[in-house]
């Protein structure tokens, strides 16, 4: 989370180990995100993601901020907070995507390209949440949100 807070200062520098941040205001299309994860987490990729974490939003669950947590081939995306439970005085955790990636030979341009392909297009964004609810969503259901 230090990278997301702008406080990341590696304790050591190993050749080939890199860190990058991905920020995007638009929500992810869940089906395309599933495909993007498959590409990013592939063990055959030249650029390899070792760890990623942060906050994300799926278009099919527009009011929920999710916690993104990945180590190696283990990935979870879990409900963290529901905007509808916040009062006017509360600060929202994240709007859109705010993710940190650490890997071997990882390039910011690759992470951005793969994840940008998973966000909503202009047409999808303009269609609004009613249309988004019809998107195929391969992620497990989130039953509750604990605050």
Compact description:
By secondary structure, this protein is α+β, with helices and mostly antiparallel strands.
> Which CATH C-level class is it?
Alpha Beta
The H/E string reads EHEEEEHHH
Query: How would you describe the shape?
Result: globular
**Through-space gap between termini:** 19 Å
Widest sheet: strand ordering: 1-5-2-3-4
Indicate the low-confidence ranges by residue numbers.
none
Going by CATH, the architecture would be 2-Layer Sandwich
Structural class: alpha+beta
Percent of residues in beta strands: 25-35%
Protein name: Cobalamin synthesis protein cobW-like protein
InterPro entries: CobW-like_C, Zn_Chap_cDPG_Synth
Organism: Brevibacterium celere
Domain CobW C-terminal: 17-119
Can you tell me about this structure?
By secondary structure, the protein is of the alpha+beta class. The chain has one domain (17-84, 94-133): CobW-like, C-terminal domain (Hypothetical Protein Yjia, Chain: A,domain 2, 2-Layer Sandwich), CATH 3.30.1220. Helices cover 20% and strands 29% of the residues. It is built from four helices and five strands. Strands 1-5-2-3-4 form a five-stranded antiparallel beta sheet, covered by helices on one side. The chain is globular and about 45 Å long. The two termini are 19 Å apart. The relative contact order is 0.26. The mean pLDDT is 85.
Keywords:
single chain, 147 residues, alpha+beta, 5-stranded antiparallel beta sheet, 4 helices, globular
Topology (elements, then pairings):
Blueprint (H helix, E strand, L loop, with lengths): L16 E8 L5 H11 L7 E9 L7 E8 L2 E9 L14 E8 L3 H9 L5 H6 L1 H4 L15
Antiparallel strand pairs: 1-5, 2-3, 2-5, 3-4
């Amino acid at each position: 989370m230090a990278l997301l807070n702008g406080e990341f200062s590696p304790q050591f520098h190993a050749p080939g180990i890199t860190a990058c941040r991905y920020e995007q205001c638009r929500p992810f299309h869940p089906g395309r995100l599933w495909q993007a994860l498959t590409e990013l987490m592939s063990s055959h990729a030249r650029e390899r993601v070792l760890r990623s974490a942060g906050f994300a939003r799926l278009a099919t669950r527009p009011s929920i901020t999710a916690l993104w947590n990945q180590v190696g081939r283990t990935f979870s995306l879990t409900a963290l907070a529901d905007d509808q439970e916040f009062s006017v005085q509360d600060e929202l955790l994240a709007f859109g995507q705010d993710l940190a990636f650490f890997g071997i030979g990882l390039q910011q341009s690759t992470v951005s390209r793969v994840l940008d392909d998973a966000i909503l297009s202009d047409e999808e964004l303009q269609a609004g949440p009613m249309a988004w609810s019809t998107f195929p969503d391969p992620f497990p259901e989130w039953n509750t949100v604990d605050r």
